Protein: 1,4-alpha-glucan branching enzyme
Amino acid sequence: CFSCLYYSSDFTLGFQTIQYELLQKKLFQLEEAEGGFDQFTRSYRTFGVQRQPDNSLFFKEWAPAAEALFLTGDFNNWNKFSHPYTKKDFGKWELILLPRHDKSPAVDHNTKLKVVVHTKEGERLYRISPWAKYVTREEKSVIYDWVHWDPALPYIQIHPRPKKPTSLRIYEAHVGIASPESTIASYTNFTTNVLPRIKDLGYNCIQLMAIMEHAYYASFGYQVTSFFAASSRYGTPDELKLLIDTAHSMGIMVLLDVVHSHASKNVEDGLNKFDGSDSCFFHSSPRGDHSQWDSRLFNYSSWEVLRFLLSNLRWWMEEYRFDGFRFDGVTSMLYHHHGVGTGFSGDYSEYFGLQVDEDSLVYLMLANHILHTLYPSCITVAEDVSGMPALCREVQEGGLGFDYRLAMAIPDKWIQILKELKDEDWDMGNIIHTLTNRRYGEKCIAYAESHDQALVGDKSLAFWLMDKEMYTNMSSLIPMTPVIDRGLQLHKMIRLLTHSMGGEGYLNFMGNEFGHPEWLDFPREGNNQSYHYARRQFNLLDIDNLRYHQLYAFDRDMNRTEDKYGWLAAPPAFVSAKHEGDKVIVFDRANVLFIFNFHPTKSFQGYRVAVDVPGKYKIKLDSDMVQYGGHGRLDHNTEFFTEAQPFNGRPNSMQVNISFDSTKVIVVELLLNVIKS
Structure:
């Protein structure tokens, strides 16, 4: 079990002291060389292309291995040599284009550009600026083009950022699949049709995937080609700004799924070999290659790479007004072995030693320090499977400074259970261990399933539970089959148990809240470029006689109940019962008592449960209610009174009924809220 032992270990404390000293050294260097991190992280205002007050255009690139740079495009009829850059110190190149005679910029809005790179070997290469703010692809082309984005009337966001919530409920979403149609959905569609659903469901944060431009759609956005460009396949930058502004008007924060762990190997429309060399932004091969991801790995020790990546974070915060980031692939960044072929048992020797990539670790500390200093309400989430100690402790403590880490073992446990075990073989203690096995004082985002579990080759929880019967037996006009009945009840119980016990935040992937059928598969050669599985069938919710809306209603009321009582912001749950024979789990958190009966055949009358606070209890959420696809067997007018009878580690206890219909294969769960006398 991961613990807080690192606080008392001389070795680990020493390691974290060194980490903090390295961070301080880097901050001092930034102050000396760049005037501080504030200026350094605004380099998106000087690199790429910038329109000056007199409408001249200033171009700047970093290409240390290049022999010469030229600018070409629609503005000069694609002349390859008429507009050379001037070489500056430290591998930088600059060019100024004076305005036309009518004082308008020399390059029109929405016209194409290219950087022409001449290498020392005599090659002539055509590249997109790494700082390009907008790139597009013509329908019959496979290569993206750099498009100058400088509208006369850009969208101005008007709504302030929402206040940072104490209980974080994240809706993980992908704009392109956010429609029932077999096509790529748009930012506008998301704003109009999806945001209202998210608001209704009670989520207070959206995690947007696949926003950073990626040439290969089926990469799910994790093979980034243009780091400063919002994906044009969904619409324009202004339409994304409207989406975020609208979310803010609803009180919903928006996180960007940022990929700084690696980059696409694309050359013509990516960062790879920008200046003709094997390195530039990356380590040279083989260190600069990720064998499993077939991608390039950043050189975090490079000053200009730090400028690029840190300015990239600042760009998304300032230009689009995102509220924070989910950092992808943190495990790969933290270790030289990138987590490949390596298991993590929790032993501290796995986290402190030569296998740790010191440069990337300092980069993550630097990123979190800068973000939280400039934007106190910013939220950062780490995707780390290793369990790195102090990942979510402040940098002043020697931690990496993240607010949350993803509790990645939880969805794996649920999938393992559904794949391998019969209902009667579920191990209550093992489930509780997985849900509570986290480092004390480091906040976790719990989730039963994310986009990973929905991908082709795997199945969503709903599909594991109900499989092919979802095609024929989800109608409420016919009696529930045993498979559908069991599937609906377990779908709700798994999600509530994860929500209430698994962390200090909760995440759901788009569509899974209502038991989205099938899996997720993007158009590719292997499926004849089909969009059939690259969509979310929200239309199923609008059909009253299908049971999907019942799961939706439960997810909504689960979030609303949490919003009222705040168990995610409370200390970890106190588990008073994990009875293997009865398959019952009882725990309390935030003065809310949770009772789960996972037994496939048993109901219980007068079942004694432990409670902390004496008084009168009433049911506040019950998954067996008819509107949630249950059987309505509990009387919600019943009041439960505690007795001063110690039980299972609590000073008080009371008796409750956990109903069961013996003619059905079902499970019953109820949530009781304490009301002090």
Summary: The chain has 13 helices and 29 strands.
